[in-house]
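fyi for ur records
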Amino acid sequence: MAYIVDRRLNSKNKSLVNRQRFLKRYHKQIREAVSDAVRNRNITDMEQGDSITIPKRDVSEPNFRNGQGGKREIVHPGNKEFVQGDRIQRPPSGSGGGSGSGEASDSGEGMDDFVFQISQSEFLDYLFEDLALPNMIKRQLNGSDAFESKRAGFSEVGNPNQVNIVRTMRSAQARRMALSGKSRRRKREVIALLQEMPEDDIERLELEEELVRLNRRLGAVPFLDEFDLKYNLQVKVPKPSPKAVMFCVMDVSGSMTADIKETAKRFFFLLYLFLQKNYEKIEVVFIRHHTQAQEVDEETFFYSRETGGTVVSSALKLMGEIIADRYSPNEWNIYCAQASDGDNWQEDNERCQKALVNAILPMVQYFTYIEIGGREPQGLWHLYESLVSDFADRFAIQRVRDNAEIYPVFRELFRKTMEVE
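which gave:
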């Protein structure tokens, strides 16, 4: 059986259909490879494409061959060990077939794993597949620049591709009936008279001339005229668009070690890529806090080294003030993602509870909290855990021990559980 491998460059996307078919076929293996890449990458390399390796056992294909069949006796040349009736033992485990793992092998032949490159766009598609912001609803039309086309009857003018065949033919038939109705009735009368009139009647010649004139008049009526053309009328109407804002709240206090901060940044960078990839119009508000909370830009949020004590309520208070000032719950879908190691003053936990219950949770569509670290759950976790039952539809908490758990937890928090309006 011959195998042909096309290694020509993919000029002008000539093999795009085959590539899409391949990606669909090995969807599971590519998804697992993307998940592994997220755990091992640096933050700055998170959004780049990647080389995907598929084990050779997954790309092998079954095939049919013609067997010789029947009962046969074969004598192989060079046999010095066996005689008729001997049972041949199985070869030792691992012999033959090569290693196939990139390591040296002194037996048989093998095949390397299949490696190919996926683009940045394809990498992000697999990364955020089946994910969505929960509970997003369409708000009012203020400032909306999104429109959709809707049918609005018919028009006398339009593009050729908008011609309504049924309406056009109906109009043409009505026009022909209106213009030629009298002539067609007279024609029927003339034909009836000619059938009853003798061949030598002197009036027959006049009727035949009249019949010729009627046929000429009826033939002059066009089957289709520009007046008959009817077009489907399409009008653009404002389309409600989901206005959304995501608050990213990260603890940068002294109890957050470098490893914990790195894990938190990975989570937020993954969230930021997810929002950029799937939502064209969404605002992101970055809040860092220690003893004081501050709204910062993207660069400061991910790369600043500022640290200090721990007062979580300062971040929740600032978030409440920003919502009241810029993001009315009547117009915006409000989301929040918070990351911390769970450490906080006991007195401040009470202020956090009041801020969440009175000012934050009633206004947000979805609030997520991840507690990072391998220790036992801290005070902030126990506080949030007590609120989950009261706000189960919009409040979710998860624990993350290291970078390997970021992607599974992220998918759990933002998995698509319902259709987004």
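Residues 97-102 have pLDDT under 50 and may be disordered. thats all i got for now
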